[in-house]
Amino acid sequence: MERENSNRTRRITLRLTEQEYAKIEGKFKTSCCRKLSDYIRKHLFNKPIISTYRNQSLDDLMEETIVLTSELRAIGNNINQIAKKVNSLKLLPEFKEQLFLFELHRKLLFDKMDFISKHTQKIAEQWLQL
């Protein structure tokens, strides 16, 4: 709301049942109001209340994408550590071991990238179904 807070000196106390409060709180949580008092004030004075709509399936896809991003970062860190070790190696057996680890993590990285590509395609298809 506007900066009218300094003029608000009057208080109204209201008692609600658990069900009534849960209903109001549920509607408040779907709105873009930052405070419950702002939501109630807008409702009382018939001002427009902007509600948000959450698509749970898209939320689930986004959560999965966040997990995949974390996994990719971990794999990238492993590859960087291996590259640093390979650059400092002096003996051939150590080099072969690090090269094997590098190939293993490289395969993991490309597998995850393929999975993310398919995952992104699923998200795109759902968005296009709007």
TrEMBL record:
InterPro entries reported in the protein's UniProt record: NikA-like
Name of the protein: Plasmid mobilization relaxosome protein MobC
Organism in which the protein naturally occurs: Flavobacterium magnesitis
Gene label: mobC
